[in-house]
Design brief:
The chain has 3 helices and 5 strands; from the N terminus they run αβββαββα. The chain is an alpha+beta fold and 142 residues long. It has one domain (8-117): HIT family, subunit A. A hairpin with a 3-residue loop joins β1 and β2 (28-32). It is globular and about 50 Å long.
C-alpha cells in the first residue's frame, strides 16, 4: 500500500483544475508552470501517482524518458532560448513542494531562468571505491 497523498497535480491531470497544457500521452502530462522562472517554464509529470523519482515504475520512467527530449526541443524552439535546465527536486529538503514526481524544463535567457551555485568538493580514490561498492550493492532490478 502506498502512502501517496493526492496533490494539486492529480487534479490538474484529471481536468478538475485548468492549466495551460502543452502535451499529453498515456504516460506523461505536461503544462506551463504558473510561477515560471522564465518564459516557457514547463512541468512534465508522469501520470503514475508517486511522490519521488525513485518510486516510479520502469514503464512510467520510460514514458518520461521518451517525452522529455521532444518537450525540451519544443520549448527551446518555441522560446528561442539558447539553453535550458531540466530539474527534478526529489524530497522536501531538495526543494520539492508538490509531492508528485515532476520535472521542470526551464529555458535559460541572460537575465532569467534557473540560477544555482555549485560548491564542488573533492573525491579521493579510496572513498570513491567504497561509495561505488555501496551504490552497486543497492542497485536492484524491478
Amino acid at each position: 500500500m502506498s502512502d501517496y497523498q493526492e496533490t494539486i497535480f492529480d487534479r490538474i491531470i484529471a481536468g478538475e483544475i485548468p492549466c495551460h497544457k502543452v502535451y499529453e500521452d498515456e504516460q506523461v502530462f505536461a503544462f506551463l508552470d504558473i510561477g515560471p522562472l522564465s518564459e516557457g517554464h514547463t512541468l512534465v509529470l508522469p501520470r503514475e501517482k508517486k511522490a519521488f523519482l525513485h518510486e516510479l515504475s520502469e514503464e512510467a520512467a520510460a514514458g518520461l524518458g521518451r517525452a522529455l527530449p521532444k518537450l525540451c526541443r519544443a520549448v527551446k524552439e518555441a522560446t528561442g532560448a539558447e539553453a535550458y535546465n531540466v530539474l527534478v527536486n526529489s524530497g522536501e529538503s531538495a526543494g520539492q513542494v508538490v509531492m508528485h514526481v515532476h520535472l521542470h524544463i526551464i529555458p535559460k535567457f541572460p537575465d532569467t531562468g534557473f540560477k544555482m551555485g555549485w560548491n564542488a568538493g573533492k573525491l579521493d580514490d579510496e572513498r570513491a571505491e567504497r561509495l561505488v561498492g555501496r551504490i552497486r550493492s543497492n542497485i536492484t532490478e524491478s
